[in-house]
Design goal:
This protein is an alpha/beta fold. The protein folds into 2 domains: 164 residues, 3-Layer(aba) Sandwich (Rossmann fold), CATH 3.40.50; 78 residues, DNA polymerase, domain 1, CATH 1.10.150.240. The chain contains 9 helices and 7 strands. A 7-stranded mixed beta sheet has the order 1-4-3-2-5-6-7, sandwiched between helices.
């Protein structure tokens, strides 16, 4: 799914932004849900077993359900039925559904520096700005709309997965050469490494929580295309330096 705000020059440099845990808080909601789920199932299994089984169910369900709150809620219900040998009550399942609804309606809380950074980049006018996020279409669209940031972006891409082929197809669709693209995100696995593999650049802004599925032992090569940031406030300086080098080459 893609939205476009305007047509721009095809040779313009482009910056892609992940959304969850890059522009706004997200994983903290899942961490809270995990804690409440563990408490609900405490009389059936220990916390480690509950976490292990829930993760296994989530990973198994990525193919049919995708990512996001809805997929997580369905996986939590499935895990609860399995671990309780079907003894989980309808009222307890309703609690899980209510928790999922609460996550979907939770206020969008921007990360420090997100609004200011995007404002400065949008004002500069030198870059195409894109959101590239995976997850449930309606949920991601809703969060972006409620964030107040939607107007800063030229394009919005909500994809089923984030890997090198997906990024390659996306860049072709928007006439962006990989070497003229820099991706910003909190996940090395989903946001940075696939783009580096295509010849692009990446700016990693770690979040204090990271889903196990997003963890990787692979490290980016030290070839000048990878940048490790402490906060988004460090991003404009990195982009300025990267853009200057790209324009010299071009």
């Amino acid at each position: 799914m893609a939205h476009a705000k305007s047509k721009t020059a095809v040779r313009q440099l482009a910056i892609g932004f992940d959304a969850d845990d890059t522009l706004w808080h997200n994983e903290n909601l899942f961490a809270s849900m995990h804690a409440r789920f563990g408490a609900l199932l405490a009389r059936y299994h220990d916390a480690a077993t509950v976490e292990r089984e829930l993760l296994a169910t989530e990973l198994r369900n990525i193919e049919p359900y995708g990512y996001g709150v809805k997929s997580f809620t369905l996986s939590a219900i499935e895990t609860a039925i399995h671990l309780s040998s079907g003894k989980i009550s309808a009222a307890e399942i309703q609690q899980l559904i209510d928790l999922g609804h609460g996550m979907l309606g939770h206020p969008v809380e921007l990360l420090e520096g997100a609004a200011d950074t995007l404002a400065s980049l949008a004002t500069a006018g030198d870059f195409r700005l894109l959101v590239i996020t995976k997850g449930d279409l309606r949920d991601q669209e809703s969060k972006l709309a409620r964030s107040g940031l939607a107007g800063r972006f030229d394009h919005v891409e909500i994809v089923a997965e984030k890997n090198a082929p997906i990024y390659a197809a996306l860049l072709r669709r928007h006439d962006i050469a990989p070497e003229n693209f820099l991706m910003v995100g909190n996940s090395l696995k989903s946001d940075i490494l696939p783009v580096l593999a295509l010849g692009g650049a990446g700016a990693h802004v770690p979040y204090h929580l990271l889903w196990l599925h997003e963890r990787t032992a692979e490290t980016p090569a030290d070839d000048g295309r990878f940048h490790e940031l402490k906060t988004l406030r460090d991003l404009p300086a990195v982009i300025c330096s990267w853009a200057a080098k790209r324009r010299q080459i071009r």
